[in-house]
Structure formats: C-alpha cells, structure tokens
Amino acid sequence: MRLDKFLSKLGIGSRKEVALLIKRGRVTINGIKVTDPGVKVNLEKDVVQIDGKEVRGKVEGFYYKFYKPRGCVTSKSDKDLTVMDFLPKDLPGLNRIFPVGRLDKDAEGLLIFTDDGALAHRMMHPKWKLSKTYQVWLDKEITELDLKKIEEGVELSDGKTLPCTASFLDETKRWIKIEVREGRYHLIKRMFGSLGYKVIGLKRIAIGPVKLEGLKPSEIVPLSEEEVKLLKKAVGL
C-alpha cells in the first residue's frame, strides 16, 4: 500500500496533508527517512514512524478473489481442510483477511477475501441484495414450468425465496445458470429440492460485479481497483 494512503487511512490526515508531512522528511520506514508519498509499505513487516513515534492501527486494504475447490470448508479454522489451507504463506495480509460468506463443502467457485469489515458486513446483509450467480448441475432434466417457478420464488421452511433469474445452459436441461439476491443456508439446493430435483454440482461464478472467470481451482488474486470500486458501489459504499 502507498505510504500516503496508509497514513491517511490511519486518520493522520488527508492524502494531501500526509503527503506534505512525508515530503518534509518527518516520516521513516524501518528507520530510513522517506520523502516519496508513493513509496510502498508492507503492512505486516514495516515499522512506520512520524517524528520518531511509531504509528499503528488497522488499515483495511486487502481484497482478493479465490477459486474455492470442492472438498474444503469456508472457515478460518476447522478440524477439516479449510479454504485457508490453500492460501500462500507469504500472501500479503494473510493474518488479517477472512472469507466473506460461505460456500458448501461440496461446492466450488468464487469467494471474496478481505479485511474490510464494513464491506463484508454489507455484502452479507439482506438489505443490499448483492447478486450471486451460480452454475447448477441437476440429477435430471428440469421442466420449463419448474424453472419458471424457481424464478418466481418457491416456498421453503424459512419463507418464500425472492424472485431470481434462471436459464438453461445446454440442451440437456440439467445444467442451469441462476442469479439470486439473497443468502440462506443451502439456498440453491433447497430451492431445487423443493420441486423434486437434486443438485449434484454447484459452482459460484460471480458475486455482484466480481467474476470467477480466468481463475483456476485454489488460485487467489487481488481484486483490481475497478472491481473493488464496483463491489463497494453495489452495496452503497
């Protein structure tokens, strides 16, 4: 992260104010004076001081997308294999980030990792209705009538589902693309199960504006600035 952005996020001052502070030679990184506001800071290793006093604090600034493989749980710690076991040990922010939301153990696809608590809260809050898109494989052909029922909403034990969009992905009518705007326990499986279908494969391919496309199973990459901007915009930040 840029030094001026780091100090600004800590509340030292505006980007303009901290840039002036840096240019005046009042800031050091690991004991070395720096005058370039754009110099990079390693948030986990570097010691930043202003006028000889170390500055500390939580800076929210890590945003990643990860292709969760099947067979692991979406948790930071568990007796079973977790998504954290797939992350590189030298990943910046590893000790700070957490997965936003969940994917079933037998499901695969897109997960967002961040240390931005405000963003994570809004992504999971039902008020914002952040879209999530899945590819679904069914045990048998689904009728157009039943797919229409899925789109209009089906009754579950915890209430009727919100309207969604669903379409066939091939001629077998067993491979479906569905976009929902709510999050409930085993939602997709229960939606199709309510009409007599079993989900035998589930892959999340998008969360709002962020796409899985281009990632390989167990791969993690930083979100682009544009992806972060669009994701925050989708939840009113």
CATH fold-type name of the largest domain: Alpha-Beta Plaits
> What order do the SSEs take from the amino end to the carboxyl end, as H and E?
HHEEEEEEEHEHEEEEHEEEH
Helix content: 10-25%
User: How far apart are the first and last residues' alpha carbons, in Å?
Assistant: 20 Å
Strand residue percentage = 25-35%
Pfam families: PseudoU_synth_2, S4
EC number: 5.4.99.-
InterPro entries: PsdUridine_s_RsuA/RluB/E/F_cat, PsdUridine_synth_cat_dom_sf, PsdUridine_synth_RsuA/RluA, PsdUridine_synth_RsuA/RluB/E/F, PsdUridine_synth_RsuA/RluB_CS, RsuA_PseudoU_synthase, S4_RNA-bd, S4_RNA-bd_sf
GO molecular function: RNA binding; rRNA pseudouridine synthase activity
Could you describe the 3D structure shown?
The chain has 237 residues and is α+β, with helices and mostly antiparallel strands. The chain folds into three domains: 3-54, Roll (Structural Genomics Hypothetical 15.5 Kd Protein In mrcA-pckA Intergenic Region, Chain A); 63-126 and 208-234, Pseudouridine synthase I, catalytic domain, N-terminal subdomain (Alpha-Beta Plaits); 131-207, Alpha-Beta Plaits (2-Layer Sandwich), CATH 3.30.70. Helices cover 21% and strands 26% of the residues. The chain has six helices and 15 strands. The strands form three sheets. Strands 5, 6, 7, 8, 11, 12, 13, 14 and 15 form a nine-stranded mixed beta sheet that branches. It has a four-stranded antiparallel beta sheet with strand order 2-1-3-4. Strands 9-10 form a two-stranded antiparallel ribbon. α1 (3-9) packs across α2. It is elongated and about 70 Å long. It starts with a helix and ends with a helix. The model has no long low-confidence stretch (mean pLDDT 93).
